[in-house]
Amino acid sequence: MSSQVRLRLLPSARCLFDEPIQVKVSGLRSRQVVALRARSTDERGVVFSSSATYRADGSGKIDLVSDPSLSGSYVGVEPMGLLWSMRPDTLHKKFQIKNSLNPHVVRFSVHEEEGEGRMLAEATNERILIGDGVIRRPVKEGNIRGVLFTPPGRGPFPAVLELYILGGALSEKRASLLASRGFVVLSVVAYGHDDMPRNIKELHLDYFEEAIQFLKKQDKVGSKGVGVLTISKTGDVALSIASYLPDVEATVWINGCCANTALPLYYKKSQILPALMFDLSKMIPTESGANMVKNVLHNPLAEENKATLVPIEQAKGHFLFAAAEDDLNWDTKAYMDEMVERLKHHGKENFESVSYPGAGHYLEPPYGPYCPSSFHWLACKAVLWGGGAQSHAAAEVHLWKKIQEFFRAHLSVDAAQTIAKL
Asked: 167 near 232, Cβ under 8 Å?
């Protein structure tokens, strides 16, 4: 390494996963061209990396906030480009850090552009998923299996029920980061976690009702009702929770469907919604080795399928619908438009919607590696998720801020109620 070249990460080398950093290089020759690289390993040992070429200014400095990448994993002025453009060294792998106690450790380095690319400087960025003082508690009470995150301080805090995935291990990233921003968050799955059954043939709203009541009883919870946050298949579960259960004040639906999909839905031992099904024979293989699955879901608006539509006009709370326009998992934008029209038809104004051109299916907290394709739990094959890395990354930044603003606006906090609990 060169003793003169310095790589700095500002304001700190340790930050929350969803916080931007400023990458600065100094001590280079005037107008020197170098390669900046980022490298990280996820929980499964999959290596993710990116590289971009930059030209120093006349004083030998580079600042990613203002200087453009000339070539590499991305081009143009992208202060966080080295993070979101990281790609796996194995095809069709999604970046995974499911346990919030595991930080996302990224090694940044500066290399000579000529020859073998000798390293000139390096720095490590520790991107933590759980803020200082946030309490993480695994939950195994009654039927509930999940993890509860509670912010530091007396509160009162608004409460959010997060449904991440249905088919497997719990992922804590979204919940822990939201708790780090001042929300009490309970993250649950419906099956496949802890001692829960690995396969189910139906879903029961009673489970989520139990989770909501558990969440409301927590000491620091000050909201009279709860928020619900989810993405993909569990998006339709969230719609049903908001439509059939009390105490739901705000629901965030990200890239889901307007109908109940895959599994029939029950409440109080009676079926309330049949399942809109898939035809996996309509999957289209692509040269990348991943499959196109956008058209495998049956049309929810066809007459024979209308019974699967979730009656969101019954909901008392507010909705935030977020749709990626290039979602290749299913026709998210069309489903969102159908819900907006349905609510308008019933004279409802309890919703807002946002759509993102160029974004793909997995809209998550910002600054993680973009995922173009990975394994699909229902298709049992790798599928394309859609979008472009640059547009998708910008959408994640906007949506993450929007989600927090939405919950703060609609989850009323009652300080007297919290004091009474204490």
From this structure: no
First to last CA, the chain: 56
- Map tokens 């029209």 to a residue: 341
**Which is higher by pLDDT, 421 or 214?**
214
Q: Which two tokens stand for residue 410?
A: 């609609």
Q: Which residues pair with residue 33 across a beta bridge?
A: 55
372: closest CA among 73, 167, 70? 73
d(CA 169, CA 163) in angstroms, rounded, equals: 12
Across 303-309, average pLDDT: 98
Taking the complete model, does pTM exceed 0.85, yes or no?
yes
Q: What is the pLDDT of residue 419?
A: 47
As annotated, the active-site residues are 232, 327, 361
Which are the contacts of 212, defined by CB distance < 8 A and separation ≥ 6?
161, 226, 241, 245, 247, 248
Nearest to 326 by CA among 395, 398, 403, 401: 395
* Beta-ladder partners of 51: 37
Query: Mean of the per-residue pLDDT values for the chain?
Result: 94
